[in-house]
Amino acid sequence: MATSKPWYLSRTIWASIITILTGTAGLTGIPVDGIDSSAFTDTVLQAVSAISGLVAVFGRLSAKERIG
Known about the structure:
By secondary structure, the chain is mainly α. It has a domain at about 10-25 and about 35-60. The protein is about 60% helix and about 0% strand. The longest helix has 25 residues, at about 35-60. The chain is elongated, with a radius of gyration of 17 Å.
């Protein structure tokens, strides 16, 4: 792999986090039978992508120095 991406855009990382959370929720007695983990992972990944885009835009707008 020559290219890389931030960890928070990795489907594998988010699927693992969702698996850990649903496993923990099941152990604590929270009902998780109706959750489609694949769809939930996609939703979380889309939310993270949207939030990181907003952070990038607001970060650039509030920057004090020029790029390049």
